[in-house]
Fold this sequence. Notes:
With 179 residues, the chain is mainly β. The protein has strands spanning 38-39, 46-49, 54-56, 59-68, 71-79, 86-93, 97-106, 111-117, 122-127, 134-143, 147-158, 164-173.
Amino acid sequence: DGTWxxxxxxxxxxxxxxxxxxxxxxxxxxxxxxxxxxAVDPNLDTQMSVLFGKTENCEVHDVNWMKxxxxxxxxxxxxxxxxxxxxxxxxxxxxxGYYDMGVECKGNNKAEWxxxxxxGEIVRDMLVPTNAYDWHRMGWLHFQKPGTHTITLQPLxxxxxxxxxxxxxxxxxxxEVEE
Length: 179
């Protein structure tokens, strides 16, 4: 449809590898537009940090911790959530269809969450996080058409004290479902 530019890069580097990829377009440079929206890969899972979402009634901050001696990790997370909180990502969906959705979080209490799209699709699930960051599968969302969409994650019910959310993951499912 003309909205995506795909680059094929070799799996293994050749003997001589250029460090720059130059793109040539058939239109003037001033007419080339780049988008900062997340482009969802139709073949691999796409993980989106909360750092790139628009938040309401909650705070994004970074945390650092050490798993093993000298092995430091860093994540951006949302904490201080209530049922009035949300985080919204703008994404470019290349292929209509079903997407398997997941949430990365940690905490000590179970809570119910909801993911909605601008097309009105909803998936909700009760998450029982652990004290370490882990991905929790939420379910399938259906996108009726390709293009730019918003995906919003909101807490519905539960105890959010001590819970933190760090990202959203989605993967296109190459299936057809009869309704």
